[in-house]
Amino acid sequence: MPRPDLLLSIACMLLYAGGAGAKQADYVDVGRTSNPNFGTWAIGDGTQVSTQVLCTASANYDNVYLDPPPVVSPPAVHEAYQFKVTTLAAPSGYYLYLNGDDTLTGNARMAVQFEHQDTMEPASFETLVDDAYDTHVHKGQFRNCRNGDNSELRMTLTAAELQKAQAGSYSADFRAGAIGGSSGTAVSTSDFNARINVGTAAQVSGLDNIAFGLWSGTGDLTNSDTFCVYSNTAGATYNITITSPNQDASSNFFLANAGATATIPYQLQFKDDLLVGGETTVTGATLSGVGNNQVPDCGGINNARLTVTLLATDLSVATNDTYTDTITILVVPL
Fold first, then answer.
1. φ and ψ at 161, to 5 degrees?
2. Does residue 188 sit in the same domain as residue 48?
3. Whole-number percent of the chain with pLDDT over 90
4. Tell me: the pLDDT tens digits for 210-247?
5. Structural domain range at position 209
6. Which pLDDT score is estimated for 122?
7. What value does the mean pLDDT of the chain take?
8. Is 151 helix (H, G, I), strand (E, B) or coil?
9. SS3 for 307?
10. Exposure string (b/e) for 125-162, b if CB count within 10 Å is 16 or more?
11. Is residue 289 within 8 Å of residue 272, measured between CB atoms?
């Protein structure tokens, strides 16, 4: 009699193994991440955003299932997971570094923001903190996400950060990670690299008209205008060329009346700061200066000056009229 019992027991065990078709496992997996490359950025391009959708699996089996999963014991279920991004640079925090050198600070690095959401849920993006799992618990997919990729990672470089960065190539390495599985402690990671190139740029802003009003009949007339020069090179250096349609062959400047039948010569001087003295007389030659490489509008603090002087000896022989000139400023980053 013991033999049939033994045979029956073996048959039941074989039936269970064949029906399950799976082996329970503590399973979590972050799919392959892509490497965001934002190309070359220039002033005016604005904030840059890269979004990638990947498969984050978290389950109590490592098999590839579709919903509804096959009948297995214990039942196959989607397990909870949490997501994070960790910088692989030495300093903590999300940054891209000039030439990938993570020892750099200031405007030789730019802050990056990472956000995550699970696309299979009615949720919104959650801002991530370096090396910390998001606080929202998600439901993972089965292996390879046969029901659709579910994990959306968004990376943002703001225009403000890009504008204050030196020109050059920026990059950094990061690691996406998930924790979950049936134990809640299984982990999986995937490394990726992000990069962007900031092109050289210069900008002039804050210029105003220089008005003298009516000459009293005595004395020289002198007036100035301060403005902002931005150059995103490492030293904020630039070349500046100042021209006018009323210049003569010797690059002398003139105010002219409406019909250009009468002119008044004037002296034009430039200085790349607002300190008193040290101005350079403008001719046809290119001048150099040091500006601001943090923000294109210099944060509202001007850093260059133009000074116009009309001599009394020239004013005294001019006919009564209104005289004007328009100057053009060309700035090239160095």
1. -70, -40
2. yes
3. 90
4. 999 999 999 999 999 999 999 999 999 999 999 999 99
5. 202-333
6. 82
7. 92
8. strand
9. strand
10. beebebeebbeeebbbbbbebeeebbbbbbbbbeeebb
11. yes
Neighbours of 112 (CB within 10 A): 23
Q: Is 231 left (phi over 0), alpha (psi -120 to 50) or beta?
A: beta
Distance (Å, rounded) from C-alpha 65 to C-alpha 32? 19
Q: State how far the Cα of 288 lies from the Cα of 129, in Å rounded to an integer.
A: 43
Is residue 154 domain-shared with residue 53, that is, in the same domain? yes
Give the mean pLDDT of 8-21.
Answer: 37
Interacting residues of 264 by C-beta distance below 8 A, sequence separation 6+: 254, 255, 310, 314, 315, 318, 323
What is the structure's pLDDT at 195? 98
Final residue belonging to a domain, choices 173, 198, 223: 198
> Does the CA dihedral 296-92-41-125 come out positive or negative?
negative
Question: What is the number of domains present in the chain?
Answer: 2
Give 199-227 as a 3 state SS string: CCCEEEECCCCCCCCCCCCCCCEEEEEEE
Last residue of a domain, one of 162, 178, 198: 198
| Residue 80: pLDDT over 60 | yes
The pLDDT assigned to 21 comes to 55
Q: Are 251 and 287 in contact (CB under 8 A)?
A: no
Amino acid identity for residue 325 in this structure: D
The CB-side HSE value for 299 (13 A sphere, CA atoms) comes to 7
Token duo for residue 228: 């902002």
pLDDT at 19: 38
Cis peptide before 74 (omega within 30 of 0): yes
Residues 207, 298: Cα–Cα separation, whole Å: 13
Is the distance from CB of 56 to CB of 189 less than 8 angstroms? no
Which residues are CB-contacts of 309 (< 8 A; sequence separation ≥ 6)? Answer: 220, 221, 222, 266, 267, 269
Tokens standing for residue 87 = 């910088």
* Whether the Cβ atoms of residue 169 and residue 98 lie closer than 8 Å to each other: yes
pLDDT tens for each residue of 111-160: 999 999 999 988 799 999 999 999 999 999 999 999 999 999 999 999 99
